[in-house]
Amino acid sequence: MTKESRPSSALRIDGQRLVARLEELAAIGATENGGCCRLALSDDDRRGRDLVVGWMRELGLAVSIDPIGNVFGRRAGSAADAEPVMTGSHIDTVRTGGRYDGNLGVLGGLEVVAALNDAGVTTRRPLVVAFFTDEEGARFAPDMLGSLTHVGGLALAPALATVAIDGKVLGEELERIGYAGKSALGEPRAHAFVELHIEQGPVLDIEGVSIGAVENLQGISWQEIEIVGQSNHAGTTPMRLRHDAGYCAAAIAHFVRDLTREMKGDQVGTVGKIDLYPNLINVIAARATLTVDLRNTDEKLLLAAEARLAAFLLQLARVEGVEISTRSLARFEPVSFDQGVVATIEAVAARLGYSQRRMTSGAGHDAQMLSRVCPAAMIFVPSIKGISHNPAEDTAAADLEAGANVLLHTLLELASRE
Ligand code: GLV
Ligand code: MN
Ligand code: MN
């Protein structure tokens, strides 16, 4: 490597190498229909981690792993003691995930490092490429658990004690897969954080725009609702005498849809999981457990949606003669990203000649946690037909490349700063 140098504006990442790495990682936990299943801290997550850590080492990065299993690969800068500029995302997926969600941000970061290595460029500030544990929250709630713990929003002990949907304990799973690291939690502290991600929604694709400069991200409220009614015979029990937990679960799902319709605007709501017990055709359900995911860019409106749901649950319990209890699984307020970093992304995209727009993120991301401790923002690339959390998730190779090029020059810009 040369000593600190001002890199040429002509520098570009290698799009084919980026796609090849994405494909190699997607082969781990590949599902029949082109998707990917690497639930956090599963055996496939371990295999994915091993592959990415191997690449980090090949690229000359110094790898550290913290006690919640977040992995950081550091590339030295000419100002050795300066806080690094960090990029990254996650490599865990939902059970029916695609190949780009999270993975693009991590492998895009490695591609930036590879391009800098090839060109012999040393940045002033060090660069760190990170991947954070359990971003999806699909196995262990809350989502963004690793980055939340990294920024001090969740203490290590309760984080390690988190119980999975399959009953396993996070800390034990972390030990089992060999990723309970020893580096100091919260280190390295970043000077700034930039995350490259697929949009996971339809805006860029519909508008034919290549790059989204993400300036804010909506608030997230996850809760689990348990309904206890009474099992009885499906043929003999008069309708007026039922305490049907299954009906109540359906009524809640219906209410959530009506609520979002009434609130219009940016309110979204999802009942993504319902479990009934005993779950038999001729038995009235004694128990139902379901999840509600509510999101809004406006914290006041999100609070109002939560209050409306709580009032509905009280009324439903009274009318149906069932017991209803709730448990919060995740609650994060809407986030505004750093205007300076957003403006840098915009300026870089313009300089590189890509079409772009400012936008909001509908999904949760590690960058929202990092924004609590340093200036942060995100770069989005289009998701074809807006499909994500689905094996059909797709992004054109040219857009993957464009996003990584914007990441490259955004990191170069931030890493050159005092
Ligand atoms: C994370 O993928 C989320 O649910 O937004
Ligand atoms: Mn993601
Ligand atoms: Mn996701």
Structure, explained:
It is built from twelve helices and 14 strands. The mean pLDDT is 97. The chain is elongated, with a radius of gyration of 23 Å. Helix 3 (103-119) links the parallel strand 3 (85-89) and strand 4. It has helices at 15-26, 43-58, 103-119, 145-150, 156-160, 170-176, 203-207, 245-263, 299-320, 339-352, 366-370, 397-415, and strands spanning 62-65, 71-75, 85-89, 127-131, 192-198, 211-217, 219-228, 268-270, 274-277, 287-296, 323-332, 335-336, 356-361, 376-381. It is an alpha/beta fold and 418 residues long. Helix 3 (103-119) crosses helix 12 (397-415) and helix 10 packs across helix 12 (397-415). The chain has two domains: 15-218 and 334-415, Aminopeptidase, CATH 3.40.630; 219-331, Alpha-Beta Plaits, CATH 3.30.70.360. Strands 1, 2, 3, 4, 5, 6, 12, 13 and 14 form a nine-stranded mixed β-sheet that branches. Strands 7, 8, 9, 10 and 11 form a five-stranded antiparallel β-sheet that branches. The structure holds glyoxylic acid (GLV) and manganese (II) ion (2 copies). The site of one manganese (II) ion has 4 residues, from loops.
- The overall pLDDT, averaged over residues, is 97
Please count the beta strands (DSSP E, at least 2 residues each): 14
Dominant shape = elongated
Largest sheet: 9 strands, mixed
**Straight-line distance between termini:** 21 Å
Q: CATH superfamily name of the largest domain?
A: Zn peptidases
Rg computed from alpha carbons, rounded to a whole number of angstroms:
23 Å
